[in-house]
Design a protein that fits this description.
The chain is α+β, with helices and mostly antiparallel strands. The chain folds into 2 domains: about 220 residues, Beta Polymerase, domain 2 (2-Layer Sandwich), CATH 3.30.460.90; about 120 residues, Orthogonal Bundle (Poly(a)-polymerase, middle domain), CATH 1.10.1410. One of its GO terms (molecular function) is chromatin binding.
C-alpha cells in the first residue's frame, strides 16, 4: 500500500492531501445531444409510425438518485450508429494528459524543496543523517492525471534487527521493537523502556525540522497536521499555481515480509514466480500511521505509536514492468492497463466533485488495488489489448462494482486487510448502482 491512507482526489490514497481538485476539462453534454439520443422520430404514416415506436430509444435511469441534488443520469444504454466507445474514452484520456512543460516546471520546484529539506534533516538530526529519498505515488508511476500539482516523497531511515508485532488483526499495522537497546543508537531518543519505537515522537521531530525549512521559504506554507496522517504536507505557490507536496517519514525494514503477506501478492501467473520471489526479498517500509483513537492502548502501546506497512516501491516496480511478456508496451503490442487505471481514477474524482453520497471515502489507492487484482486474474497481455480499451475498462468497472457490493476490497499484499473496512454497506451498494449506471450509459460524467 502506498504510504498514506486518507481518501484523495488524484493521489494514491496518501493522507495529507489538499482539497479536491477541479475537473480537468469536464464538459456537460449539450442539450441537443441529449435530445437526439432520446427523441422519437415523427411520421404521418401509421405503419411507419408503429415501426418507429417499436424502435424508440430506451432511457436507462439509476435505481435511485445518488447525487445530493437528486438529478438522475439519462442516456441510451447501447451504442448507436457510428459511435465509437474506444474513441470516446481515448478523447477523455487525451484531456487527462499532463503537459510536459508543466510537468518539468513542477518537478523542478519540488526537487529544489526536497533537497533543502533532506540536507537540513541530515545536518540537524543524528537519526536522519543517512536518510534516503524514495519517490512514490502516481507522478513517479506515470499515472498522474490532469495537473502535476500533487507529489509524494517518502524519506526513509534504515532499520535492522527489529521485532515486529501485529498491532491489528488484519496484519496492516505493527509495533516496532529494537532487538538490542543501545543508548548510542540514533533512534534511542524515540524508544520506550520496552524497546518499542514511538512513532508519534519520531513524526513530531520530523515535522518540526521540516517546519524550520518552511519558515525560510516565502512561497511555501505548512498545512495543519491531520489525525492519523503520516505525511507532512507543504503547499507551494509557484507561478500562479499551487503544488502540494507530502513528505512521509518511513522506516526501511530489512527483514522477511510479515506472515500476513504469505497469501497475497499473487503475481506468479502474471509476472512469474521469479519476480514474486525477487520482490519479496526486498525490504518493506513502515509509516507512522494509525486508525481510530490515538490514545487507545494495546499491550501497553498506544495506537499513535503504531506503524503501517507499505509496499509502494513494489507497486511502482510492477506497474512499470506490468506485461505478461517483457515486450509489452516496449516495442511489442501495447496494452491498456494504465489507461484503464487512469480512467477509473478520474471517474472516482468526478464522483467526488459531483458530491455523490459516500464517494468521499473512495481514493485512488482503491482504484490501483482493483487494477492489481484484475491484472493478477486476467494475466495475458492480449486480455488488455490497446484496441479493446472500452471492453477492458468495462471489465475493470465490473470488478470494482463487485468489491463495492461485497463491501470488501482485499489489500493486494495483505489479503486479510479489507480496504473498505468501516464503509457503510448500504452506501457501498448505492455507489455500485451509480457506477453501473455510468458504465451502461457511456460515462456521462467522463465525456
Amino acid at each position: 500500500m502506498s504510504a498514506r491512507g486518507r481518501p484523495r482526489t488524484a493521489r494514491d490514497d496518501h493522507p495529507g492531501a489538499s482539497g479536491a481538485k477541479s475537473p480537468c476539462g469536464t464538459r456537460k453534454k449539450s442539450a441537443q445531444r441529449n435530445e437526439d439520443q432520446i427523441g422519437v422520430k415523427k411520421t404521418t404514416d401509421a405503419k411507419v409510425e408503429s415501426h418507429s415506436k417499436s424502435q424508440e430509444s430506451q432511457v436507462v435511469r439509476p435505481k435511485k438518485s445518488l447525487k445530493n441534488s437528486s438529478v438522475e443520469t439519462q442516456a441510451p444504454k447501447s451504442a448507436k450508429g457510428s459511435d465509437n466507445p474506444n474513441k470516446e474514452l481515448l478523447a477523455v484520456l487525451e484531456k487527462l494528459k499532463v503537459k510536459k512543460s508543466q510537468r518539468s516546471e513542477s518537478a523542478k520546484c519540488v526537487n529544489e524543496i526536497r533537497i533543502k529539506i533532506t540536507e537540513h534533516l541530515k545536518r540537524q538530526t543524528d537519526w536522519s543523517k543517512d536518510i534516503c529519498v524514495l519517490k512514490t505515488g502516481s507522478y513517479y508511476e506515470n499515472l498522474k492525471i490532469c495537473e502535476p500539482d500533487e507529489f509524494d516523497v517518502m524519506l526513509t531511515v534504515r532499520l535492522d534487527r527489529v521485532n515486529l508485532q501485529p498491532y491489528s488483526e488484519d496484519g496492516a499495522y505493527y509495533s516496532v521493537e529494537m532487538k538490542r537497546r543501545n543508548p548510542k543508537h540514533p533512534l534511542d531518543k524515540f524508544v520506550n523502556d520496552d524497546g518499542t519505537i514511538r512513532a508519534s515522537e519520531m513524526l513530531k521531530d520530523f515535522r518540526e525540522k521540516i517546519k524550520e525549512v518552511v519558515d525560510s521559504l516565502s512561497n511555501v506554507t505548512l498545512e495543519r497536521k491531520k489525525k492519523g496522517c503520516p505525511a507532512v504536507t507543504l503547499l507551494v505557490k509557484e507561478n500562479g499555481k499551487k503544488i502540494s507536496i507530502d513528505f512521509v517519514l518511513s522506516l526501511a525494514v530489512h527483514t522477511s515480509w510479515p506472515s500476513f503477506t504469505q497469501d497475497g501478492f499473487n503475481i506468479e501467473n502474471w509476472l512469474s514466480k521469479k519476480v514474486r520471489m525477487e520482490q519479496r526479498q526486498k525490504n518493506f517500509y513502515l509509516v507512522p500511521k494509525y486508525e481510530g483513537k490515538g490514545t487507545a492502548e494495546q499491550d501497553g502501546i498506544m495506537a499513535k505509536d503504531a506503524w503501517r506497512i507499505s509496499f509502494s516501491h513494489v507497486e511502482k516496480y510492477i506497474l512499470k514492468n506490468h506485461g505478461n511478456r517483457k515486450t509489452c508496451c516496449e516495442g511489442g503490442q501495447k496494452c491498456c492497463r494504465k489507461q484503464c487505471l487512469k480512467l477509473l481514477k478520474y471517474l472516482l474524482q468526478r464522483l467526488k466533485e459531483e458530491k455523490v453520497d459516500a464517494a468521499d471515502k473512495l481514493c485512488s489507492y482503491h482504484a490501483k488495488t482493483t487494477l492489481l487484482h484484475a491484472c493478477a486474474t486476467r494475466v495475458k497481455d492480449s486480455e488488455w489489448a490497446d484496441g479493446d480499451l472500452s471492453h477492458c475498462f468495462q471489465q475493470l468497472l465490473m470488478d470494482f462494482e463487485g468489491y463495492l457490493r461485497a463491501c470488501k476490497l482485499p489489500n493486494f499484499f495483505i489479503p486479510s486487510q479489507n480496504l473498505f473496512n468501516g464503509f457503510n454497506e448500504k452506501k457501498c451498494n448505492l455507489l455500485a448502482d451509480y457506477i453501473e449506471n455510468q458504465r451502461n450509459n457511456r460515462f456521462p460524467l467522463l465525456c
